[in-house]
Amino acid sequence: MKRYAYYLSCINESMTKEVDCSIELWQKDLGIEFVKLHEGTCCGGSNLDYVSPKHFALVNGRNIALAEKMGLDLIVSCNTCLMTMRSAKKKLDETPELKKEVNEILKKEGLEYRGTSEVRHILWVLVDDVGLDTIRKKVKVPLKNYRIAPFYGCHILRPSTVLGHDNPVNPSSLDQLVEALGGQTIPFKHKNRCCGFHTLLVAEQESLNVAAEALQEAIQAKADFIVTPCPLCHTSLDGYQSKALKQAGEASSIPVFHISEMVGLALGYSAKQLGIKRHIVS
Amino acid sequence: MTAPTDQHIEGTKDVTFRIFRFNPQVDSKPYFDDYTIPVERGVTVLRSLNYIKEHIDASISFRAFCQAGICGSCGMRVNGLSQLACTTQVWDVLAKSRESGIIKVEPLRNLPLIKDLIVDMDPLVDKMKHYSNWIDSTMPESSMGKKEFLISEAEFLRYDKATDCILCASCVSECSILRANKEYVSPAVLLKSYRMNVDSRDAIHGKRLAELVKDHGVWDCTHCYRCQESCVKSIPIMDAIHGIREDAIELRGMKDTSGSKHAEAFMSDIEKKGKLVEATLPIRTNGIVWTLQNLLPMAVKMIMKRRTPPPPPLVKSAKGIKIFREMFREMTEHVRQDHKSQKK
Questions:
Q1: Cα–Cα distance between A6 and A144 in angstroms, integer?
Q2: Taking 80 as the threshold, does the pLDDT of residue B250 lie above it?
Q3: Cβ–Cβ below 8 Å for B278 and A196
Q4: Residue B18, min C-alpha distance to chain A (Å)
Q5: For residue B144, what is the DSSP state?
Q6: How much is the pLDDT for A125?
Q7: pLDDT at B298
Q8: Fold of the domain spanning B121-254
């Protein structure tokens, strides 16, 4: 059983609880164990970095240091948390004076940021650590009747100098996961585009336009559902879907799944167990 | 086409350039023309276009000048990605083409089309004017020519990268928000604005910043990083955008915008609970009236699906919040000291 420290994203503790619930169901089936990091704090959601770059380094240096203390990699299931903490890690690793300043403060809690734990997305753990072959063998209910639109979102791809797992122009890890689960991916131009989440409260019209474009492509391509590795993308594409599509004059709708739910379905768990009924679009 | 002798041994590849065509004076809608030519390793997309124009079809229109990645004229979309035709090698693109042997060449997005691969840069120039993308000197005119400005290396390093911009508009073409609303300031203009704002020789950063924090300005950026990813000069454009925001919030007290209120809510929630209090985020960003008008129908659906974030008292603080808060406040003191020494 391979162990990881698991970062609790704010949104997965409030609006998208189904993400962590579904991971909890299947983690042991795939020979992995996520140890929840209850001491972890909000990463700053791609905002703290400019409100106060030093607090950003402290908060995320601490989040990573908590995992380092356990001797484990830090796994996240939100794209923005991933990008944010990897950015902080890069900054700390490249700026010795900042690292020293952060560590002086972290001493109070008996912590030290050393740079020994990686920050990784759960999608990467599934594809790289568990492995597609193992996943294929564990599938009980192949998703063979589904045409699936893989929506990666921004912060698992860009900036590539910080993320570096997939090719940001033509990413493939999510496509590979879908195929390992027996599903069929559709060619999806919006796979590496934006969901508009981060400006939903600041530039709502623009954000809804951005979301609507992705949704409409998937609808027109007759996908059965969209799948995303990010709960923020899910909120934009599912929670705001009716608003976005209404603005775009689109009458149809399309369900949006988290990767954790898609894995759960293929491993034989029910929609009810996985919390799929909590989605706004069914 | 010619290439260095040692590369001849690798031969040539037949490549089809599928070029976007549209002449608004004669065409009712755009179409694509295919041109297949042999291309050796090392040949760029621009050289291929020049070859096609010279030998096959002189009617194709595109902009190009320096052929060396310096002037920024030949920005276009090659297989969907905005880049300079003169620094993009055909074989490299070919290796990643979805359709074997075919390279699609299209004009930049988010700017009006003039003809074929040529877009109108005027909207971008107009925005540069609107956001005062130049230095208005702090030096009185009477002293000009008599004194020189001395700039520290540390200051120069703050905008060194930003000065690499050649206005090729690749970032403009890739911008998610500009695609949704053409009024948006655009990444290139934000980058230039940042570059001018951090220059100590400049006298109008207050005026510039006041424009930048208005509607369609710096707060409308949705952090998608497409601009930065497509930058042909690898400029960290998001750092510039974040730099303007940091300046607006921390140094100049321009906090009365929904963007800054939204960003600051993260800071205050992290300090108090270590967790984001999502339930009140819309109200703290836009006020109660906006929230009721815009989010009430969705809130009802969310309640029915038990999807609403918990009310503030029920948001559990992160474990060990007491010591976390102390550390957070210690850093606040560090930042205060930094600002004091910067002002000196």
A1: 31
A2: no
A3: no
A4: 18
A5: B
A6: 98
A7: 87
A8: Fumarate Reductase Iron-sulfur Protein; Chain B, domain 2 (1.10.1060)
